[in-house]
Amino acid sequence: MEAMNMEKHPIPGKRYTYEDYYNWEDGIRYELIDGQAYLMEPAPGYGHQDISVQLTRIFSNYLEGKPGKVFHAPFDVRLNFDTGDNTVLQPDIVVFLDRSKLAGTGSLGAPDMVIEILSPSTSRRDRVTKYNQYLQAGVKEYWIVDPKAKTVSANILDDGRYLCTDYAKPDVAPVRILEGCMIKLAEVFEDWD
Question: Is the peptide bond before 174 cis (omega within 30 degrees of 0)?
Fold first, then answer.
């Protein structure tokens, strides 16, 4: 595609690919889901950020000296790069056990684990649209973290569907893809006055 035909920002209702996404120049973050551009919200609140930092730290410490890697947003996850290349998500946190999927500003293919931390403006997309995208792509473990309720819904891929177990602040949540990794949720959900 010639550069002069490239749009500098997405037009509502139009379908796009990763190439379009990569070339947008408006400085605003988007996600692509089945070719449709979705505006990313401005910087999340401090509670959201704190949960992200705590979880990233825990995973990073656990993976030290092991083959896996953890990354936090912004990080482009190109779920269908080998087919339509029209779905690019930016999860809050991703864990990869297969480093060969890492490329450029993100990944070519599904992470082993995705964590989305809910915000009021993204809750439905995380619980429904992205849930289905991650399921179809074969993400083995998908956590939906609710900062307000201080809960984690851990979705584990089993025979083409997700089995969900819910955990709350006092619980210890096992990470199924990482043997022996247990997350004390009281350390993740700090009380802010």
Answer: no
